[in-house]
Amino acid sequence: MAELKVNINGNEFKNPVIVSSGVFGYGREYEEFVDLSKLGGVATKGTTLYRRDGNPGKRIVEVPSGLLFSVGLQNPGIDYYIENELPNLLSKGTNVLSNIAGSDIDEYVAIVEKLEETDAPIIELNISCPNTSGAPLGTSCAGTEKITSIIRKMTKKTLIVKLSPNVGDIAEIALAAEAAGADAVSLINSIHAMKIELGSRRPFFHNNVGAYSGEAIFPIALRMVWETASKVKIPVLGIGGVTNGEEALQMMVAGATCVEMGCAIFRDPYAPLKIIEQMNEWLDNNGVKDINEIIGSVKPW
Length: 301
Ligand SMILES: Cc1cc2nc3c(=O)[nH]c(=O)nc-3n(C[C@H](O)[C@H](O)[C@H](O)COP(=O)(O)O)c2cc1C
Fold this sequence. Notes:
The protein is α/β, with parallel strands linked by helices.
C-alpha cells in the first residue's frame, strides 16, 4: 500500500480525494452510505451570509458527458451552517473545507467574521459568483487580488481560493491570488454553458445560461491545472470531470496536491472511495511508494 497522505499548509489529508462543493451538501445525505472519515476532505455547499432559496425554474439537466445546472447557491446561510452543520462535519475525522460565496466584498467579509469565531480550519473562497456590478470578482486579476487580500488580513485559517475557468488565462488569476496571500488555489469551477428548448425557443434555465460540469470538462480542467501548477508556488487542488483513479492521478501528475470530485458522485455515491482504491492500486502496480512523488511529475515535451 502506497503512502497516500498529502499536506496543504499544515493540514494533513489522509488521501488526496476531496468531495467538491455543491455535490455533497453538508454530508448529511451521504453519511449513511459513505464513511466520511475515509475521505481526504469534504468541501461544503457554497454558503452565503443569509439563506438563499436558489434560482426559479429548472435547475439541472443531464447532457452528453456531463450536467448543466443553475442552482443559484441554494443554502441555509452561514449562521445555520455554523450552528447545525459545521460541528457535525468537524466530528467526522476528515478535513472540512468551508466553501463560501458572496455577492460583494462586504458579504464575504461578514461571513468570514462569523467563521473566525469557529474551529473551521479551512476556507474555500468561491470567487466565481457575480458581484453586484455583474462580473464575478474572480474573473479579473485585480478583483481576485482585492478579495483575497482583504480576507487574508482577516484570518489565519488556511485560505484556498477557488478559481473560475471562465477567464482568458487562469494561471494569471492564480498568481494574483498567490500574491495576495492565498495558501492554495482550487480549480476549476464549472464552465458557462447553455441549452435552448427548441419548441418554445426559450433557454432551459431562467438565468438563460447555466454551468457545465462532469466528465466532458476533465481535459479542460487538466490543462488549466497544469498551466496553473507550473506557475504558482502554492499548492493546487485539481477539480473537474474526474471519474476514476487514473484521471485523479493525471491531475496530480499535472501538479495537483489534492483532487476534488464533483458530478461523478451523483452517478455513484461510492465513487470517491473507489477512486482512492484505484489510485492505490495504480501506485502499487507502478512501484510508487509515496503519492507525493508523482505531484507535478509531468514531463512536458
Ligand atoms: C449541482 C452543483 C452545485 C455546485 N455548487 C457549487 C458551490 O456551491 N460552490 C462551488 O464552489 N462550486 C460548486 N459547484 C462546482 C463543483 O464544486 C466543481 O467545481 C465542478 O462541478 C467541476 O467538477 P466536476 O466536473 O467533478 O463536477 C457545483 C457543481 C454542481 C454540479
